[in-house]
UniProtKB/TrEMBL annotation, chain A:
Protein name per Swiss-Prot or TrEMBL: Trafficking protein particle complex subunit
Domain of life of the organism encoding this protein: Eukaryota
PANTHER family: TRAFFICKING PROTEIN PARTICLE COMPLEX SUBUNIT 2
Annotated InterPro entries: Longin-like_dom_sf, Sedlin
CDD domains tied to this protein: TRAPPC2_sedlin
Species of origin: Nannochloropsis salina CCMP1776
Ranges in coiled-coil conformation: none
From TrEMBL, chain B:
Organism: Nannochloropsis salina CCMP1776
Assigned GO CC terms: endoplasmic reticulum; TRAPPI protein complex; TRAPPII protein complex; TRAPPIII protein complex
CDD domains referenced in this protein's UniProt entry, alphabetically: TRAPPC5_Trs31 (cd14943)
GO biological process: one example: endoplasmic reticulum to Golgi vesicle-mediated transport
Keyword Endoplasmic reticulum tagged: yes
Locations listed in the record: Endoplasmic reticulum; Golgi apparatus, cis-Golgi network
Name of the protein this chain belongs to: Trafficking protein particle complex subunit
Gene3D superfamilies on file: Trafficking protein particle complex subunit 3
Length: 145, 207
């Protein structure tokens, strides 16, 4: 279970839910999806409430990796803030070590910078590139599994 | 005819469109990196840009504002790129650190030199100045007498503003001509005026 969100200066610009591990062909698909939906909303809520904690943390640490900034019910929110003020937030259950989280963030950061070098990519606008999403998912498989 | 031929060729698995995310990031220009742009190519493009805007504005102030806007996006990208390359996953959380990042790291990457000087204004504590004797944008520019106050370095002012705003140090940046020595020659001064909340925050953090 983990949720990854990129937040620009004003709004979330990218979102990847890693918990939906492809189509789970259960016996009662409707029931499962309802529970999952409730969970997804809770996760969103936790992530967005942690933004305040991030604003506090960002001026006390000179590092982009702000580490764990918030905890809720066994979930941990890790944050990584780029030089341009774009935040990568990852909500996870704490089963992955710090090293793999940092590895994931650094690789996503490189992807993000590459994406930004495209002159047609607008600042602080939602990221619509499908290949960006595909690559983020590959990184998740490499670092967070 | 040629089009269909090429398509058929790529269908055979020869040519593949390379996504920007697949390519490595541009390396440093110096030392055989090969990503340096020739001055003439830049000057040609820049002069076209100035002419384009000149036909679409009513005043010099508008023209400078347009150039600043064009530079703003460049600044934001330059900030992320250089921070990624050279800062080892650290951010600037000191005002003076950000200014030094601009006058040395950014200047080196864009112009292959550091800025001539970085000064704090003696009159207003929220103002800083970067001096540059010959900005790359002004090398081949001689403005006619009726628009002599135009400074094309407004484009660079926009870049600075993009870097500072991106780094959460919002500031207004303007480019000005200043006469030096006997008055025959001019240098450009970039006046950086930070927003009030930036200084308040800086004081709170250090205090």
């Amino acid at each position: 279970m983990s949720l990854f969100v990129i937040v620009g200066k004003n709004e979330p610009i990218f979102e990847a839910d890693f918990s939906t591990s492809s189509t789970s062909t259960g016996a009662s698909p409707n029931k499962v999806s309802a529970a999952e939906e409730g969970n997804a909303q809770l996760n969103q809520f936790i992530l967005h409430s942690s933004l305040d904690m991030m604003e506090k943390a960002m001026w006390s640490s000179p590092y982009m990796n702000l580490r764990a900034i918030d905890r809720f019910n066994g979930h941990i929110v890790h944050a990584f803030l780029t030089a341009g003020g774009t935040a990568f937030l990852l909500l996870h259950d704490g089963s992955r070590g710090e090293e793999s989280l940092v590895g994931f963030f650094k690789d996503v950061y490189e992807l993000y910078v590459k994406l930004l070098m495209n002159p047609f990519c607008e600042m602080d606008r939602p990221i619509v590139s499908t290949s960006f999403e595909a690559r983020v998912r590959v990184l998740e498989k490499r670092w967070l599994r | 005819m040629t089009e269909s031929k090429r398509n058929a060729g790529s269908g055979g698995g020869g040519i593949r469109m390379l996504n920007i995310l697949d390519r490595p990031l541009a390396t440093k220009g110096r030392g055989g990196g090969g990503s340096e742009v020739s001055l003439s190519a830049f000057s040609f493009l820049f002069s076209e840009m100035v002419q384009y805007y000149q036909n679409r504005v009513l005043s010099i102030a508008d023209l400078e504002r347009k150039l600043e806007e064009a530079g703003y996006g460049v600044g934001h990208r330059v900030l992320e790129l250089l921070a990624f390359r050279e800062k080892q996953y650290r951010r600037e959380i000191k005002l003076i650190g950000v200014l030094q990042f601009v006058s040395s790291t950014v200047w080196k990457a864009l112009f292959n030199k550091v800025a001539d000087s970085l000064e704090r204004s003696t009159e207003n504590e929220d103002e800083y100045m970067i001096h540059e004797r010959e900005p790359i944008t002004n090398v081949f520019v001689s403005a006619p007498a009726d628009i002599s106050q135009l400074n094309c370095a407004a484009y660079i002012a926009g870049i600075i503003s993009g870097v500072l705003n991106g780094a959460s140090y919002p500031a207004g940046v303007t480019a000005h001509h200043v006469a030096i020595g006997d008055g025959q020659r001019e240098k450009t001064v970039f006046l950086i005026k930070f927003r009030q909340d930036v200084l308040r925050r800086e004081a709170a953090l250090s205090g």
